[in-house]
Design goal:
Helix content: under 10%
Shape: elongated
Distance between the termini: 69 Å
Oligomer: single chain
Number of helices: 2
Number of strands: 30
Structural class: mainly beta
Radius of gyration: 33 Å
Strand order of the largest sheet: 2-7-6-4
């Protein structure tokens, strides 16, 4: 009488509840570890097993690697046994066990063994700024690449750790990556790549060398940091893609333009009254002048935030809408053309090579002069900003596709940030010259507490 104290049906204690034996015998394995890679630590021991009766009695067993012996296999009456590992690779031991009631089942044991080291390769892009860009690749056909690390040496000094990563679940096949090391002008650097697979086999180290040009601008100085505070770390390259087109920082928050022409206020700018344009074309950009904000659509039409039509631009494929210091609106199209409202050209179009298109453009504060970023990462001057090109990067040094440009200073003393589609970025010129919206104090969304920039 009373409740059964066991959490499972063990039987035996109540005559009205007879024992329910296990359908099959039990197998207890030993020796080589299950589902664990053997490799650089040495060969694994044989797999061993011990059988236990589950209630119907034992009637033999059969063992085979990588395939079920099958119900008709010859049976052994031994209660224990062992099997040597057949070699490298992924192998499964099949232990088929029979009981005296005639039932049988295939009990499996996974074994992993890899003695082949992974392969590794690395190269450096030609250094044209203070950033040395490393591209690396690694591959392992069996256990998969698990650990990747890079060490750095300056001018032949001893190597020191720089970065490392480890995969939680390595998988076979090639792995690619890129990273940028910010060095000092005129200095030579050696970067050493080390790769290890999940079986702890190590690839031969790969060493590549590069020199930062003596003419390259230096990284942020102590004076820059004294003015700006501690600068944020470079992002790892994981920019999220979504429906937002542009972000426009303000003194107390930011405006974010969506692809549907909706404008959302963040930070202190929570309320943004805007009416949906009559045109169904996708939104491209938003510019703010003294009379308010204007949204440019992909069909060349512009709309005020109150929903009334704005000026029209004769642009076939617009990518940006810029507001000059005097309130003039300048449209930028993908082929390098620049136009004013009403269809008048702003200046001579920027000449882009075949297959290259404009990605972004920006003006220097209070002027109509600016720079254009193309899809190859090159910068082009327009509106009288030719002097800025002497201090700007001459070639793209980031790993991914050019995406954005932020300008500060003047054409004679420019500063800027270039960003790519993966979220990486690099600077040129003095960071002190950048606008407050780029490196000012953090702006937080009061509803979520998350930083906006």
């Amino acid at each position: 009488k009373g409740a059964d104290p066991w959490s499972f049906d063990a039987g035996y204690l109540w005559t009205s509840n007879p024992p329910i034996p296990f359908l099959l015998p039990l197998a207890f394995f030993g020796g080589a570890r299950w589902n664990s890679w053997y490799g650089a630590d040495g060969p694994p021991p044989p797999v061993s097993w011990q059988l236990r009766d589950g209630g119907h009695g034992l009637s033999g067993s059969a063992v085979q690697w990588d395939a079920d012996p099958g119900p008709g296999a010859a049976r052994s009456q031994a209660l224990s046994g062992s099997a040597a590992i057949p070699g490298t690779g992924s192998h499964t031991l099949h232990l088929r066990v029979w009981d005296r009631a005639g039932a049988s089942a295939d009990i499996t044991y996974l074994y992993l063994y890899d003695v082949d080291p992974p392969t590794a390769a690395a190269r450096l892009d030609p250094a044209r700024s203070s950033a040395i860009t490393l591209h690396w690749s690694a591959a392992d056909a069996l256990s998969g690449v698990k650990d990747v690390s890079v060490e750095v040496s300056q001018n032949g000094s001893g190597f020191r750790p720089w970065l490392s990563s480890s995969a939680d679940q390595p998988s076979p096949g090639p792995k690619l990556g890129a990273a940028r090391y910010l060095g000092q002008p005129g200095q030579s650097y050696q970067l050493r790549l080390a790769v290890r697979d999940a079986a702890r086999n190590v690839a031969s180290p790969v060493v590549v060398s590069g020199t930062v040009p003596a003419s390259a601008p230096p990284p942020a100085t102590a004076n820059d940091q004294a003015v700006l505070g501690v600068l944020p770390e470079l992002p790892p390259g994981s920019a999220a893609r979504g429906g937002s087109q542009q972000e426009h920082p303000l003194s107390n928050g930011a405006l974010v333009l969506g692809g549907d022409a909706a404008v959302q206020g963040l930070g202190g700018t929570r309320t943004v009254p805007i009416s949906v344009p009559a045109s169904t074309a996708a939104a491209v950009d938003l510019a703010t002048i003294s009379t308010g904000s204007i949204v440019l659509l992909s069909d060349g039409t512009a709309w005020n935030t109150d929903g009334t039509p704005g000026p029209r631009f004769a642009l076939k494929n617009p990518v940006r809408l810029l507001a000059a210091g005097n309130g003039t609106l300048i449209g930028v199209q993908a082929d390098g053309g620049l136009g004013l409202a009403g269809g008048a050209p702003f200046s001579q179009p920027v000449a882009l090579a075949s297959g290259i298109s404009a990605t972004d453009a920006a003006l220097f504060a209070g002027s109509s002069a600016g720079l254009m970023l193309d899809s190859a990462g090159a910068l082009h001057a327009f509106g009288g900003a030719d002097a800025a090109l002497a201090a700007a990067p001459s070639a793209w040094t980031l790993p991914a596709q050019p995406a954005g440009l932020l300008l500060g200073g003047t054409p004679q003393a420019p500063a800027g940030i270039l960003s790519d589609a993966s979220g990486d970025w690099q600077t040129f010129g003095s960071l002190v010259m950048l606008p407050d919206s780029a490196f000012g104090r953090p702006v937080f969304d009061p509803a979520t507490g998350l930083p906006i920039r």
